Amino acid sequence: MHEPNHSRIALPDEAATAAFAVRLARTLRPGLVIYLRGNLGAGKTTLVRALLQALGFAGRVKSPTYTLVERYEAGGLHLRHFDLYRFRDAEEWESSGFRDEFDGCNICLVEWPEQATGLLPPADVSLTFEILQDGREVLLHAYTDAGQQCLNALPPDIPRLAAVAALRIRRDRHQLGAYLAGAGLHRASRWNRNNPSATTCSPSRIRNVW
Ligand SMILES: Nc1ncnc2c1ncn2[C@@H]1O[C@H](COP(=O)(O)OP(=O)(O)OP(=O)(O)O)[C@@H](O)[C@H]1O
Ligand SMILES: [Mg+2]
After folding, report:
1. Count of domains for the chain
2. For 12-22, what is each residue's pLDDT tens digit?
3. Which of 46, 47, 83 to mutate to test the pocket of ligand 1 (most atoms within 8 A of CB)?
4. 182: burial class by Cβ within 10 Å (0-12, 13-18, 19+)?
5. Residues with beta carbon inside 6 Å of ligand 1?
6. pLDDT value, residue 69
7. In a domain, 1, yes or no
8. Domain presence at residue 29
């Protein structure tokens, strides 16, 4: 990797977190492993929830606090949302099939990765959330070429994306579509639907993604 492999983004309020999620959703590719770090209440689940909504997922996004993992299909992608805060038993890694979830196809978003050190595959990207007096800050770090490509592909942080995210929070999908069309943008889910490599995941397709 020759480019700077980290950056920092201010997230003054929840709408800013959602706007960041909209941008991040457009960069996701099958197989990415994304660690989500930060204290309790730092905003990790908020980010995942907004990310799934940006991909077009319309259902409820529960925190996997007790289930440890929740599974989603959205925008032609398979996503796994782990929260390993309560993960204790290393044998559960095999017996619950967690190892199998990291198959080079699923996008795995992992809260509290430090709870499964030595079991988890390494991250392509880590997002570290810090709680500030006003809002949050997120530090983005790429560890692999795939992770660097993901961060390089982040669309610019234009202020109106915050408005888009705010609309999204209100779950006014019709209004969001009209707004995006007016702004010359497209929902990530639409982009992924038009991207054949995002809809079916096999090793050969993964190689073609980039
Ligand atoms: N950028 C932000 N600025 C201010 N508040 C935020 C921001 N992002 C999220 N929040 C709020 O902070 C809280 C974050 O809760 P969330 O469940 O996302 O945290 P978490 O990091 O997943 O915690 P846990 O480790 O317990 O799972 C929510 O109440 C949310 O509304
Ligand atoms: Mg959480």
Report:
1. 1
2. 999 999 999 99
3. 46
4. exposed
5. 11, 13-14, 16-17, 38, 40-46, 63, 83, 85, 111, 135-136
6. 98
7. no
8. yes
Domain boundaries, position 93? 6-209
Asked if the structure places residue 142 within a domain, the reply is: yes
Report the alpha-carbon distance of residue 119 to residue 134 in Å, rounded: 35
Q: Which residue CA neighbors atom 31 of ligand 1 most closely? A: 14
CA dist 191 and 171 (Å) reads: 20
> Which atom of ligand 1 is nearest to 48's Cα?
18
Check which CATH number belongs to the domain holding 190 and give it.
3.40.50.300
φ and ψ at residue 197, rounded to 5 degrees = -70, -15
For residues 121 and 63, what is the distance between their CA atoms, to the nearest angstrom?
Answer: 22
Expressed in angstroms and rounded, the spacing between residue 159 Cα and the centre of ligand 1 is: 21
pLDDT, tens digit, 9 for 90 and up, residues 168-195: 665 555 555 555 555 545 555 444 444 4
Q: What is the pTM of this model?
A: 0.82
The one-letter code for the residue type at 48 is V
Residues 36 and 163: beta-carbon distance below 8 Å: no
CA 168 to centroid of ligand 2, rounded, Å: 20
Residue 158 lies in a domain: yes
